[in-house]
Amino acid sequence: MGMLNDVYTDLKGFMNPGHKTQFSNSMIDVLDMFEVESSWLHKKLVPNFEIYMWMREEWACEQYLNSVALVGYSSNCGLNKAMEKVAEMVQDLEKEFADIKQKVLSNKDLNKGNVMGYVQSLEYFMAANIEFSWISARYHGVGWVSPAEKYGTLEF
Fold first, then answer.
1. CA–CA distance from 2 to each of 9, 31, 156 (Å)?
2. Any domain includes 155
3. Contact indicator for 29, 20 with CB cutoff of 8 Å
4. EC number(s) per UniProt (predicted)?
5. Is a pLDDT exceeding 50 seen at residue 101?
6. Could you tell me the pLDDT band of residue 126, with boundaries at 50, 70 and 90?
7. Can you give the residue range of the structural domain that contains 108?
8. Residue 156 forms part of a structural domain
9. Which of 13, 55, 98, 150 is the most buried (most CB within 10 A)?
10. Given a cut of 60, is residue 49 above it in pLDDT?
11. Spatial contact of 102 and 89, defined as CB atoms under 8 Å apart
12. 96 in a domain, yes or no?
């Protein structure tokens, strides 16, 4: 818990007062809640037939329990359009994160210690079980071998 407080303090000095972005708001929320809800993947989203079929069942039962269903419901659009919107949102956040990471890397005061460790941890974090994600072909394709330094879990 102490490390997250240190990261939060460092980040407050990095963010421009009054300039809030969706990512910076999310990062602050994450730090406030002491849990990580963000992820950044170095690959494009790949449609998954199993997930799509499950979503259709949920959609038909009007169970809006995930981001795709919530976006579809709030935007009054169909399932395919909702999936496209969520994919666009994820891509926008990936670009925003990449820009913020570059700013952190180019700032000598932030390119060390708490903030850099936090940013690097976000790169490896996935919304699913992180240990399983590093060894699962479902996320990386058949034949993918996880780098040894990325095995394990994140502890804050």
1. 11, 11, 8
2. no
3. no
4. 4.2.3.-
5. yes
6. very low
7. 2-150
8. no
9. 55
10. no
11. no
12. yes
